[in-house]
Amino acid sequence: MRNTLFLIAVILSFSACTTYQYVTFDSSGLQKDKQQLLTLENDTMRVAYSFSGPGGNVTLTVFNKTSQPIYLDWTRSSLIRNDQSFTLRRRDTEIIPPQTSISDVMLNLNDEGGGIPRLNIPDSAHSRKYHYPSGGWIKYKAVDYTEAGSPIRLKAWLTFLFGPGGSTDLTMTHSFYIGEVMHSGVYAGGFGPYHDPGDMLYVWYQ
Predict the structure, then answer these.
(1) Which of 39, 106, 119, 173 could form a disulfide with 48 if both were Cys (CB 3.0 to 4.6 A apart)?
(2) What is the pLDDT of residues 159-190, one digit of tens each?
(3) 79 vs 49, 66, 161, 174, 192, CA distance in Å?
């Protein structure tokens, strides 16, 4: 019992000096599915982006709906953060066989993408409450952004190759921006509004 109380005290003291920010990404050109992945689907493929989890991984999943292989040319693809472009992968080209998918981490915004700064939450930010089903509640602050006012804007450039020997190419561009930031001293496992959706990452600061 004493060890349990000590462990709880340690967790509470750690949480008290740590700030968590839960960052939701939106896009004006993509739809969100049931998992809140940002997606685009046509007769040829389904493209989905995930920002889920800690630290800022941007994960790309591509499903080939055709009966022919599709190639993703990483050498002609990039991810642009504000005005800075980042190389995505070291390999040259990746094959997507018919009726299958690939899934790759394009970039980690925190490690490779210049870091995710601690976003200022103004005193005027909305204070919200979350009520837990078991009783009790927490308060946190949240701020919404427009695409023009987002502190981080991303643009993905993807180049696909089709046909014999990859003779036909197709370039897709998809844009993203921060739509909401929630600010709390509660870690992800205990923060009620966070359910690991595909459009939300979280970072923490001491």
Answers:
(1) 39
(2) 999 987 777 899 999 999 999 999 999 999 89
(3) 12, 26, 18, 10, 32
Total Cβ atoms within 10 A of residue 97 = 11
Q: What is the pLDDT of residues 67-126, one digit of tens each?
A: 999 999 999 999 999 988 887 766 789 999 999 999 999 888 887 666 777 887 877 787
Overall size of the chain counted in residues: 206
The DSSP element (H or E) to which 3 belongs, if any, is helix 2-16
Q: Whole-angstrom Cα distance, residue 60 to residue 57?
A: 10
* Residue 35 to residue 130: CA distance in whole angstroms: 21
Structure-block tokens of residue 36:
């809140």
Q: SS3 of 145, please?
A: coil
Contact predicate 64/99, CB 8 Å: yes
Give the bridge partners for 174, in sequence order.
156
**pLDDT per position as a tens digit, 45-68:** 999 999 999 988 999 999 999 999
Nearest to 106 by CA among 123, 81, 83, 126: 81
Residue 59 phi, psi dihedral angles, 5° rounding: -105, 130
Q: Which residues pair with 70 in a beta bridge?
A: 96
Composition of the chain by helix, strand, coil, percent to 5: 10, 50, 40
Task: Please enumerate in sequence order all residues whose Cβ is within 8 A of that of 14, keeping only pairs 6 or more positions apart, or say none.
Answer: none
User: What per-residue confidence (pLDDT) applies to 13?
Assistant: 41
Global pTM? Answer: 0.87
Amino acid type, 35: Q
